[in-house]
Amino acid sequence: MATQLRIATRNSGFIDPESVESYIAVGGYQALGKCLSKMKPADVIELMKNSGLRGRGGAGFPTGVKWGFAAKYESDIKHVVCNADEGDPGAFMDRAVLEGDPHSVLEAMAIGAYAIGGNKGTIYIRAEYPLAIARLKMAIEQAKEMGVLGDNIMGTDFCFDLELKYGAGAFVCGEETALINSMEGNRGEPYTKPPFPAEAGYWNKPTIVNNVETLANIPAIIMKGADWFNKIGTETSKGTKVFCICGKIANVGLIEVPMGTTLKEVIYDIGGGIPGGKEFKAVQTGGPSGGALTYKDLDAPIDYENLVARQSMMGSGGMIVMDEEDCMVSVAKFFLDFTMDETCGKCTPCRIGSKRIYELLDKITIGQGTEEDLEKLRSLSVNIKDTALCGLGQTMPNPVLSTMRVFEDEYRAHVIDKKCPAGVCAELLEYTVVDQKCVGCTLCAKVCPVNCISGKPKEVHVIDQAACIKCGACLDKCKFDAIIKQ
Amino acid sequence: MTKINSLADLQEKAEKLQAAKTKTMNEKVIVRVSLATCSIASGGKELMAAMKEECAAQGIANVVFKQVGCQTYCYAEPTVEITLPGREPVTFGYVKGDKAKELVQKYIKSGELVEGVISTNYERVVF
Fold first, then answer.
1. B34: which chain A residues are within 8 Å (Cβ-Cβ)?
2. What proportion of chain A, given as a percentage, has pLDDT over 90?
3. Which domains does chain A have, with CATH numbers?
4. How confident is the model at residue A398 (pLDDT cuts 50, 70, 90)?
5. Which pLDDT score is estimated for A13?
6. How many CA atoms lie within 13 A of A58 on its CB side?
7. Which of A7, A11, A96 is facing B36, going by the closest CB pair?
8. ipTM of this predicted structure
9. Which pTM does this prediction carry?
10. Closest CA to A339 of A175, A167, A96, A126
11. Which InterPro entries match (chain B) (predicted)?
């Protein structure tokens, strides 16, 4: 039985998030106190480097190294930014941490500021998270009153103040350069690096951007030490990862497991497997930027490198489980629909490419795709990956490429046989009456909105395929399992 | 709120708070209700109100209610964790309708388990 290990989510569900005392009672702000009174900024950075903590926002950049870059530059003002712009479909771990344990994020930001010689903090949070915002505001106020934030923290010379900035909920604003643009009041569009934010970020001052989950790990690392942390996890990926498992899974929820736990352990031991006796088909990790993994990958230990090697990625930790009733072409179309909406439009490959990919996928799901379209889809995807400006565009074709690679037969069934094997794509389905089972109860004919079912009472009914709009009402209504879709 | 002026101050405060917490744990029933966005949406606040009401109706006074964040069991929301004095905490899920009252009448009053217990399998970092 796989066991969870809760580091980033250690306090969520255990303490009152609206009480600073509740946080202090579990050792809160002691990591900050330890840094301020017993460690030099360089020691803090060294400790973070040794711990091996990598960014949990998705890209996995080593946190200590990032802090080290920002520490090198001289500046009167340096910023610590918390990226709380969580926008992956199926991911909600940052919200859980912010709502359940806001002080741990504030404490970690103060530690980061001390380490890089900074003094200002900003939490960039999407406006769709009102409860998280309310609890953060409350936490900031209480922490200042308590003297663990603000001026002369815990009687030292160190001052650190922070504010909230609200995002309008744009997926691209998770990308740090787009996030900084948005914070400055500009359109949330990314820009080319260098200069990296560590040199010139928010208002051209050295800036570090860390994700919520990354930050939540930091007080624990300071208190328990780098050795403790890097003994957890795998060779390249240390510590734990929080995942949100959703979709076709019995125990939908939030979990935190050591890196290196296998997908099988996550889906079956912790997630309780697939409900309704259905077969597991695939799991999408890394959200719209990731890819689909199949039964072949179930034994793979989850870490940054292993997922990339299997052409998916860690991402922020959303895991969408799919069963035999999910059509992989439709899944790819769903993600492309999302990225097509979320592209900022600055670069052509992403703006126009996403639309073109979506159109091709749509064509395939309505049964008008050709084999040539599959080739087009593949080459277009590869080109976009190579030419897009930022992470959003560079990873946008991943769901298409990975589903095409692993479920090629499903794509071919759509374009050649004009069939959707999973029975999802409405235009490719056919509802038919099983003669042996039909008792002629007439219920299907009564419920059909286009009157395309004919037959006398007590006789076998017939569906007029040309007139059928594939709504499925007849199938739902039939009490004798006499209607099948295929 | 008295200001904290040093690490020693903070540690002293933490110790005091911890001692108070231990005292409460020994004497009272602690009820932690998950109140994150999703828990609230699935009825967490109603569950808390119903349990409070039932405690009052039953004349049970030694219960401390606390709001906490996400308890991570989305599939079983709303959820509540109850710690009887000197016992291990037990988490109950699917606490809808009369279930809240039942928890007070059976588990809080006499330690009798009711359906919906969620088995937990995690270690948690404490310091």
1. 13
2. 94
3. 20-231 (3.40.50.11540), 240-417 (3.10.20.600), 429-485 (3.30.70.20)
4. very high
5. 96
6. 27
7. A96
8. 0.96
9. 0.93
10. A175
11. Thioredoxin-like_sf (IPR036249)
Query: Cβ of A34 under 8 Å from any chain B Cβ?
Result: yes
Scored b (16 or more CB within 10 A) or e, A370-391 reads eeebbeebbebbeebbeebbbb
Q: Is A124 helix (H, G, I), strand (E, B) or coil?
A: strand
Q: Is B18 part of any domain?
A: no
Q: Does A100 touch chain B (CB under 8 A)?
A: yes
Domain that holds residue B94: 28-118
Is A1's pLDDT higher than 70? no
B7·A36 Cβ contact <8 A: yes
A1/chain B closest Cα distance in angstroms: 9
Tell me the pLDDT tens digit for each residue of A110-168: 999 999 999 999 999 999 999 999 999 999 999 999 999 999 999 999 999 999 999 99
CB-CB neighbors (< 8 A) of B17 in chain A: 21, 24-25
**What residue has token string 């409405």?**
A426
Q: How far is B70 from chain A (nearest CA, A)?
A: 5
Is the per-residue pLDDT at A290 higher than 70?
yes
Which helix (H) or strand (E) is A309 found in, with range?
helix A304-309
Q: What is the CATH number of the domain that holds B45?
A: 3.40.30.10
A295: nearest Cα among A332, A259, A263? A263
Structure tokens at A66: 């990032």
Residues 220-239 of A with CB under 8 A from B: 220, 223-224
**Residue A107 corresponds to which amino acid?**
E
B11 is a domain residue: no
Tokens at A25, concatenated: 């009672």
Domain presence at residue B33: yes
